[in-house]
């Protein structure tokens, strides 16, 4: 949480060139907390604090700044300063920043970087957005299988300051193909003379660079991993995805699903609500709202076409809002459950008939209960004048109850089948739910409602 109250003190330390106090301030606080404090300062002042820190600490604090603040600071730096900062950053954070820098500045920075770092940036930036390759880091510990535990621990000790995580070490052959995994705990507890290949786990859980990032994040969550190795088509280890990156991915995917479910367009970024201009939200939301409102005109045409039915039985008007809400609510409930199950991998398009059968059972129970309550309400409590001569309150109640029951059944069917069908067609299931489904159920609900009344009551 940004705390502007600290900003004056930081500015005073900068003006006094009190480097020692600034270093202590950054050293003894969590990098995220320092980033929050620094975010209240202008870009030039942020750099005045960062430049007096050790490279690793500077890079860690900078990586925790908001993306827009990072870009502002980057714009204020010279070519060599920015190149050095990028070199010190973790590979995945480095690539994220590099991809957001204007192309002309990218061309200036690349020659100032070491060859290994240039190649690493080009490789990580080449993977399509949304894949495991686009979010992985090349910052991991790799060990050959034929060294001893003592040698492995010594190697980790030397590499640890430059690695994001050392709790897992990945065992690779001479072609860097992944053949095993050994944890730091296993190395510490194993006899020093043992070979790594004798204590490593050979059945390694891994993902491929082309796998969807959400699927990879779910694997880390499901197997409770600190990190997941990522391999290419030849099983060569090319990177890892850590648990903190998996948490960021899941947050991002939740944001995307929620916004799509409520018919909001745009890039679906997490944590940018206050930074997103009003005009952008207008562009993302207005087309859907206006389009769905236009579709609701169909409901109006249906009501108009049944004008005689409505005028001859005015009690039908009382339950119109309830009919519209019931279909939308039931369909949205079903769609939310199915979309969530699809996202978690609990079900797939192959389970279509099982899911439909399950939801229809639920819909039947809800529909029967709601129908019974409505039949009792109309039969027992219909007021004088609401039921025309020649019709019984019980029969009118049955027509209304049947329409509601059918609406609930149809809503559960569509709420389950549309996301499953979208998944089978490789489309985003969230796009077919929410307001879109509610609007569809309004239209179909009106048709069911008036058709049932007209047929059963001979209106």
TrEMBL record:
<feature type="transmembrane region" description="Helical">
    <location>
        <begin position="363"/>
        <end position="384"/>
    </location>
</feature>
<keyword id="KW-0460">Magnesium</keyword>
<dbReference type="InterPro" id="IPR038076">
    <property type="entry name" value="MgtE_N_sf"/>
</dbReference>
<comment type="function">
    <text>Acts as a magnesium transporter.</text>
</comment>
<keyword id="KW-0479">Metal-binding</keyword>
<feature type="domain" description="CBS">
    <location>
        <begin position="200"/>
        <end position="256"/>
    </location>
</feature>
<dbReference type="InterPro" id="IPR036739">
    <property type="entry name" value="SLC41_membr_dom_sf"/>
</dbReference>
<dbReference type="Pfam" id="PF03448">
    <property type="entry name" value="MgtE_N"/>
</dbReference>
<dbReference type="GO" id="GO:0005886">
    <property type="term" value="C:plasma membrane"/>
</dbReference>
<protein>
    <recommendedName>
        <fullName>Magnesium transporter MgtE</fullName>
    </recommendedName>
</protein>
<comment type="subunit">
    <text>Homodimer.</text>
</comment>
<keyword id="KW-0812">Transmembrane</keyword>
<keyword id="KW-0129">CBS domain</keyword>
<dbReference type="InterPro" id="IPR046342">
    <property type="entry name" value="CBS_dom_sf"/>
</dbReference>
<dbReference type="InterPro" id="IPR006669">
    <property type="entry name" value="MgtE_transporter"/>
</dbReference>
<dbReference type="InterPro" id="IPR006667">
    <property type="entry name" value="SLC41_membr_dom"/>
</dbReference>
<comment type="similarity">
    <text>Belongs to the SLC41A transporter family.</text>
</comment>
<keyword id="KW-0813">Transport</keyword>
<dbReference type="GO" id="GO:0046872">
    <property type="term" value="F:metal ion binding"/>
</dbReference>
<dbReference type="InterPro" id="IPR000644">
    <property type="entry name" value="CBS_dom"/>
</dbReference>
<dbReference type="Pfam" id="PF00571">
    <property type="entry name" value="CBS"/>
</dbReference>
<dbReference type="Pfam" id="PF01769">
    <property type="entry name" value="MgtE"/>
</dbReference>
<feature type="transmembrane region" description="Helical">
    <location>
        <begin position="430"/>
        <end position="450"/>
    </location>
</feature>
<keyword id="KW-1133">Transmembrane helix</keyword>
<dbReference type="GO" id="GO:0015095">
    <property type="term" value="F:magnesium ion transmembrane transporter activity"/>
</dbReference>
<feature type="transmembrane region" description="Helical">
    <location>
        <begin position="396"/>
        <end position="418"/>
    </location>
</feature>
<keyword id="KW-0472">Membrane</keyword>
<feature type="domain" description="CBS">
    <location>
        <begin position="136"/>
        <end position="199"/>
    </location>
</feature>
<dbReference type="InterPro" id="IPR006668">
    <property type="entry name" value="Mg_transptr_MgtE_intracell_dom"/>
</dbReference>
<keyword id="KW-1003">Cell membrane</keyword>
């Amino acid at each position: 949480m940004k705390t502007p109250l600290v900003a004056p003190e930081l500015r005073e330390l900068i003006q006094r060139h009190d480097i020692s106090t600034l270093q202590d301030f950054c050293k003894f606080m969590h990098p995220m907390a320092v980033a929050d404090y620094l975010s209240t300062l202008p870009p030039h002042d942020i750099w005045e604090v960062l430049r007096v820190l050790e490279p690793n600490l500077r890079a860690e604090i900078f990586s925790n700044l908001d993306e827009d603040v990072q870009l502002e600071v980057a714009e204020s730096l010279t070519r060599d300063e920015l190149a050095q900062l990028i070199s010190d950053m973790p590979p995945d954070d480095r690539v994220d920043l590099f991809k957001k820098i204007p192309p002309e500045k990218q061309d200036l920075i690349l020659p100032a970087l070491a060859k290994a770092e240039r190649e690493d940036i080009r490789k990580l930036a080449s993977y399509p957005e949304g894949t495991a390759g686009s979010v992985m880091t090349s910052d991991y510990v790799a060990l050959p299988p034929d060294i001893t535990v003592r040698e492995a621990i010594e190697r980790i000790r030397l590499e640890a300051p430059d690695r994001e995580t050392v709790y897992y070490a990945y065992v690779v052959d001479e072609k860097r193909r992944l053949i095993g995994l050994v944890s730091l705990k296993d190395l510490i507890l194993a006899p020093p003379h043992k070979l790594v290949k004798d204590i490593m786990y050979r059945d390694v859980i891994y993902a491929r660079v082309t796998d969807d990032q959400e699927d990879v994040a779910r694997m880390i969550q499901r197997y409770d991993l600190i990190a997941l190795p990522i391999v290419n088509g030849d099983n060569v280890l090319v990177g890892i995805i850590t648990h903190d990156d998996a948490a960021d991915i899941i947050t991002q995917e939740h944001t995307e699903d929620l916004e799509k479910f409520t018919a909001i367009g745009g890039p679906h970024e997490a944590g940018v609500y206050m930074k997103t201009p009003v005009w952008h939200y207008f562009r993302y939301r207005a087309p859907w709202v206006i389009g769905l409102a236009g579709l609701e005109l169909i409901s109006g045409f249906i009501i108009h076409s049944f004008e005689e039915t409505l005028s001859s039985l005015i009690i039908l008007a009382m339950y119109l809002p309830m009919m519209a809400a019931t279909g939308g609510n039931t369909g949205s409930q079903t769609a939310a459950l199915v979309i969530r199950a699809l996202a978690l991998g609990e079900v797939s398009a192959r389970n279509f008939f099982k899911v439909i059968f399950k939801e229809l059972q639920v819909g039947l129970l809800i529909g029967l209960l709601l129908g019974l309550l409505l039949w009792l309400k109309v039969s027992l409590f219909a007021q004088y004048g609401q039921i025309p001569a020649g019709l019984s309150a019980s029969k009118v109640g049955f027509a209304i109850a049947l329409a509601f029951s059918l609406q609930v059944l149809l809503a559960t069917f569509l709420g389950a089948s549309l996301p499953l069908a979208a998944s089978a067609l490789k489309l985003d299931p969230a796009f077919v739910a929410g307001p879109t489904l509610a609007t569809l159920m309004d239209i179909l609900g009106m048709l069911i409602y008036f058709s049932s009344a007209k047929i059963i009551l001979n209106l």
